[in-house]
Design goal:
Strands 5, 6, 7, 13, 14, 15, 16, 17 and 18 form a 9-stranded mixed sheet that branches. Strands 1, 2, 9, 10, 11, 12, 19 and 20 form an 8-stranded mixed sheet that branches. A 3-stranded antiparallel sheet has the order 3-8-4, with helices on one face. The protein contains 11 helices and 20 strands.
């Protein structure tokens, strides 16, 4: 019976961000001749998380030793630098400082030193005078210098992955229905009425990944709760030489407001983390009632709110008050003023939340019949995209 089906491809990938395109690239590298079709609802690649982040190649220092984030980020950082060099994509290994500005942060900074060593990352500890050698305008009690951190153009990486994969990448192809039959394969209908048939499906839909999983008939046992990250550009980029981060709170997957000198020479400041009122809610004016109702009806959303309302209130204040945001930046960079901060495009983080309110801390990949779902791949997924793509490719090729 299977032989009678006219398949359009072997593997259907939903999502044309860096993870979906890396998966397509990995499949065709591992199994030449495998036919891959990528369906992306936007008119081009990398229009959401991939194209709206800080452009940082993360070292892997923050992540729990042995976790997928730690292993894939450390491996992925080196591979991303190599990929960019091979394909002539703008990048630079800059290193970065993680700076403690209060005594209460010193134990967490020392814990990061230990974590870095456990993850195999070279770390140098700095005192106040050494901080100013790296960053003359930055102030802190202590810092660590992480040499393997870098920057690149992830949008260009995604475009190159699409080309190099040899996949049939279809833009403007929003998936509205999935018909999956264990004995036959998967048929997907797009908004324009087209039907694409494949032997297996990969869900790399990012902000929409839980909805795609449910369209396929699987219960993802999580929901995406979108958090908007707002950014500014620094009007006086000469104040910052490289990358400067605060010490993060280990209770949250967010890294705090940081300073990032990008490939073009400008300095990005941000992001904060506030609940978005739509999956793709890049501003307070973007409200989608059905999506918001879906977020509010998920029990985990209310548990997050009850448990972390103080943290959320601070983030909300920094979103609504430029003065409050400036004060957060001044902890690291005292010379900055409100007029130095120029608003630029925001991003939205697709954060998986479990029913009990747990913020999923690691990458989350699950399988269904003829299907692989990538259900949590926020930062550092861009850094880790090449190893993630290989891991997903192995799973879907095994299904074939």
């Amino acid at each position: 019976m299977v032989r009678d089906v006219a398949y359009d491809c072997d593997v259907l990938v939903i999502g044309g961000g860096i993870v979906g395109l890396s998966t397509a690239y990995a499949i065709t590298r591992a199994a030449p001749g495998t036919r891959v079709t990528v369906l992306e609802k936007e008119p081009g690649p990398a229009r959401h998380q991939t194209g709206r982040n800080s452009g940082v190649i993360h070292s892997g220092i923050y992540y729990r030793p042995g976790s997928l984030k730690a292993r894939y980020a450390v491996r992925g950082a080196a591979e991303m630098v190599k990929f960019c060099a091979e394909y002539g994509i703008a990048h630079e290994v800059t290193g970065k400082l993680i700076v403690a500005t209060e005594r209460a942060e010193l134990p967490r900074l020392h814990a990061l030193v230990q974590r870095g060593r456990e993850n195999g990352i070279p770390v140098r500890e700095l005192g106040p005078a050494q901080i100013t050698e790296y960053e003359p305008e930055v102030r802190g009690l202590a810092a660590i210098q992480v040499g393997t951190t870098g920057i690149c153009d992830y949008g260009a990486v995604a475009e190159r992955l699409a080309e190099a994969s040899g996949a049939d990448v279809r833009y403007g192809a929003e998936v509205v229905r999935i018909d999956r039959r264990a004995a036959l394969g998967v048929a997907v209908r797009t908004a324009d009425g087209a039907v694409v048939r494949g032997k297996a499906l990969v869900n790399c839909a990012g902000l929409q990944c839980d909805r795609v999983a449910m369209l396929a008939g699987d219960d993802p046992q999580m929901r995406i709760v979108p958090f908007r990250g707002e950014y500014f550009d620094l009007a006086r980029p000469e104040l910052v030489r490289g990358l400067v981060y605060p010490v993060p709170d280990p209770a949250f997957p967010f890294l705090g407001v940081h300073l990032t000198r990008g490939i073009g020479g400008g300095v990005h400041v941000g992001p904060n983390a506030v609940p978005a009122l739509a999956r793709e809610g890049y501003g307070w004016g973007v409200v989608r009632p059905l999506e918001l109702a879906g977020t509010l009806s998920w029990p985990g959303s209310w548990r997050i709110a009850r448990q972390h309302w103080r943290y959320g209130a601070g983030e909300l204040r920094r979103s609504l008050s430029k003065g409050a945001f400036t004060s957060a930046v001044r902890r690291l960079l005292p010379a900055v003023t409100e007029s130095d901060l120029i608003p630029v495009a925001a991003g939205v983080r697709a954060q998986a939340v479990l029913r009990d309110g747990t913020l999923v801390d690691d990458f989350l990949i699950r399988e269904g019949a003829r299907t692989v779902h990538v259900l949590n791949a926020p930062s550092p997924a861009a850094t880790a995209s090449l190893p993630i793509g290989r891991a997903v490719a192995r799973r879907v090729l095994a299904l074939l």
